[in-house]
Amino acid sequence: MSTPLIRLENVTRTFPGAAGAFTALSDVSLTIDQGEFAVVVGQSGSGKSTLLGLLSGIDRPTRGEVFVADTAVHSLSERAMSSWRGKAVGIVFQFFQLLPTLTAVENVMLPMDFCGTWVPRERRERALALLERLGVADQADKFPTKLSGGQQQRVAIARALANQPALLLADEPTGNLDSRTSDAILELFRSLAAEGQTVVMVTHEQGARRLASRTITLADGRIVANERGSHG
Amino acid sequence: MASPRVRKILRDVWHHKARTILVVLAISIGIVGAGAVLNTWSLLRRVTREGFLATNPASATIRTDSIDASLLDRVRALPAIREVQARRTVIGRAMVGGAWRSAVLFTVADFTAIRIGTLQPMSGAWPPALGTVVIESSSMEYADAAIGQPLIVQVGDAEQQALDVSGIARDAGLAPGWMEHVVYGFVTPGTLAQLGAPASLNLLQFVVRDEALDREEVRRIAYEVKALIESTGRRVVDVDVPEPGEHIHAGQINSLLYTQGAFGVLALLLSGFLVINLVSAMLAGQVREIGVMKAIGARSEQLAAMYLGLALVLGLVACLVALPIAVLLGRWYAEFTATLLNFDTAGFSIPVWAIAVQLAVGALLPVAAASIPVLRGCRIPVSAALRDFGIEGDGKGNARWLRGFGGMTRPLLLSLRNAFRRRQRMALTLLTLAMGGAVYLGALNLRQSIRNSVAYMFGGILRYDISVGFARPYRADSIEAAIGRVDGVSRVEAWSGSRAAIARAEGVLGNAFPIVSLPANSAMVSFVVDSGRGLTPGDSSGLVVNRTLLRGEPGITIGGDVSLVIDGRSSRWTIVGIVESGPGPTAFATREAIVRATGEAGMDRAVVFAADRRPAAQAELSRRLREALQNQGFEIGSSLLMAESRRVLEDHMLLVAGFLMIMSQAMIVVGGLGLASTMSLSVLERTREIGVLRAIGADHRSILAMIQIEGLVISIASWALAIPLSIPMSVALGNAFGRIMMPVRVVSLMPESSGVLLWLAVVVGVSLVACAWPASRATRVTTAAALAYE
């Protein structure tokens, strides 16, 4: 039986604005089990990215509680947050966000370096193993600008996995990729989930629903649908 | 192998080579500026301390009648005295290039046994043999002398004789001969006798046993010695007690270096500002990367350590570049200053502590400067960093006053508003440029003030062209009649000069200074009266003193009485006025008053105003004057052309202004770098905006113009700010200079208009050059790339 890895309790996030406060998420409660491949969909401005920000600890709820793997994320100090985030969460961005002056393998080693995980001399070996698993081992010593979009995103996913995070978050990871590459990346997430990696992905991609174990639909900051998918 | 984060930083540095070089350059300039002054100061301190003290300088010098061995023994037996020695100084003249110049000849009983004020043989023979002269190194050039060549010397009225120049020696206790316009030479008592001068030793010098004594305590001991000398029936003419352990010019040099040191520190601060700017620029381009690194687990302090570590490394590299230059400059400037002090820096090294201070400042300055932007940059929340798109929406450029320019074209208005968008950064750049401008204008003003002061002194205050000194006194009317008959003389006055000292209450004399007697209504001198009044014909006991004298004798007040000892005789005087008359302490009295005080009716000096104002004609007149006077039986000691003195004085004073000009040029370089970095930063931050402009039709030229105009707005604003800033700068420089060298007449506090215009040209030029790179970078931005810029 699966245990809930993520638990949101009555989470509300409002942003102060010139035209009054704007509520991005309103009283959202949600649980996601370990090993799920959850997809969050919704219109632009529905609160998808806000939800992702709260899960990664990049943002904090105005009200409510966020638990990830038994950690009360909402109550972590800024300092504790970054070291928790480094070890517990891997983030994949829409624009890949690889550091341009580091090679692919160095980008993957960077989180280990910051979080002090693994013995320094084992880091490269582990980074290479991750690249191998994502099918880009042959690009290890190239700089990001020499890689295609798909290759960059694979390196970025390898980087997100560097510290064996409990949770892999992806923000429109296929938004900048052609459809064939997109499909490959989605398939990759599915297979990672199948191996027990919890994945939460925000996307516009309709095709993603097909591979997901659960699809959460947001509208105006509220969950309007929460459906189990074919892989659930 | 270096960790990924170290590699990232190193590659970033490599990637932004231009910016990295700018940072290193900025720190280097600051270190060179401040370091050069520190090196100069610390080296000079060492040279003067160790070099001067090594000569075992006299604690006091007492002028008396002839001194013999038994007197020396008796003085040496006093408990407070460690060392005693006798010498003689004879004033004569030396023939240099067909004209006579003042000469001062020193003698001691045995040159090989000098213990006080030791001499340093430099080349040729040592000690001087009978019939030869060893020249003091600082007067070799002035004497136009060479070893092995004869030097024609005359003392008083005796027959002139050729002495072979046998060697060169240095006397670190003398002010340089070329500066004093004196040929200093060392001869044996036998040679003096050959020259017809009295050869007996008349100056008693001693060194006190306790080195910690202050000037007053040494003076007290000097008076014990004086009493002892007088008890032997000898007469004591004057007692001179210098500041213990300090070279005669050390105070001046210190003040000079402190003033320049302030500019060094300023250069350092400005380069610190520049580093803040550049590091901000660097971080501005890295906000997103910082956000990503935080998102994957970097803590703020890890990121701060990365960037501050980089700053430290850049600082060390800058030190590597700057320290050798600072050392070279410091040595060069110290050497020049040491020449003024008659010292030699050879054989001395800059103290290790000075280098260590520069290294520490050079390494830590960038860390300190970077810490503000780094901490700010590293504290940006991840979400904000990831949202950073490069277009700012702070609206700060829309200051109300900037909306008033309705008639302007839109692109011009955009440039103007852009310039004021990042206020703090703009303020730093503007301030750096403005300070450079203020120093430049201030230095120009100082230069003009120096010229005016010198011109004023040699034309306003001293209104004569030639000064003739006689070997003994003559009646005033006979001098004036004899000179008046010489063709080309427009006016003549007979003056006299004696040495006076203020008698203090406890029977102690102050240091000797010249007292000049002159006609009350003299046409040859026109004092600027600071307070009180000038001399009037009825002044039989009225004394006018100059400001420089006042500095050494602060007790003097207008209307106060002083007791003076002149040529061994005491007299009472009332201070009637304080005037400005030049760099040396001097007092003035009427001829009648001096006659009353000294009983000597004769005059020993004549000042002449020439009909022909050309220097060549005056030199010729000086030669004919000597000839005519000698033909009529006058014994001439020396003659001095004021034009020559003026030129030499001016040259030396202007060197100081020159140093300040160099400082201001260093600041404009720092300012230019600052502007270049500010503008590159603007372009970088506004890549997207520039892309938008291109998309709506801006061509190459308008983009170029937009950036250049933005730079010009800042530069011209700095120029405008520099003008009012230069006023306090001029006042400060004038005051500092006045304290150190001589009172300068600050003609006008307003900068010269030609200087202001020149500075405008410099600023515009610097701006165009500084903005060239950022502007061309901006034109290379393509619409597509700019709009895709992340």
Structural key phrases:
heterodimer; A: 232 residues; alpha/beta; 6-stranded mixed beta sheet; 4-stranded antiparallel beta sheet; 7 helices; 10 strands; B: 790 residues; alpha+beta; 6-stranded mixed beta barrel; 6-stranded mixed β-barrel; 20 strands; 19% strand
Could you explain how this protein is built, in words?
- The complex is a heterodimer of chains A (232) and B (790).
- Chain A has 232 residues and is α/β, with parallel strands linked by helices.
- In chain A, 34% of the residues lie in helices and 28% in strands.
- Chain A has seven helices and ten strands.
- In chain A, the strands form two sheets. In chain A, strands 6-7-8-3-9-10 form a six-stranded mixed beta sheet. A four-stranded antiparallel beta sheet of chain A has the order 2-1-4-5, with helices on one face.
- In chain A, helix 3 (104-115) crosses helix 4, helix 3 runs parallel beside helix 5 (149-160) and helix 4 (120-133) crosses helix 5.
- The longest helix of chain A is centred in the C-terminal third of the chain and has 16 residues, at 179-194.
- Chain A is globular and about 50 Å long.
- The two termini of chain A are 12 Å apart.
- In chain B, helix 19 packs across helix 20.
- Chain B has 790 residues and is α+β, with helices and mostly antiparallel strands.
- The longest helix of chain B is centred in the C-terminal third of the chain and has 44 residues, at 642-685.
- The A-B interface holds A 53, 56, 58-59, 78-79, 82-83, 85-87, 90-91, 93, 95, 97, 99-102, 106-107, 109-111, 113-115, 120, 159-160, 162-163 and B 3-5, 7-8, 11-12, 14-15, 288-289, 292-300, 302, 381-383, 386, 790.
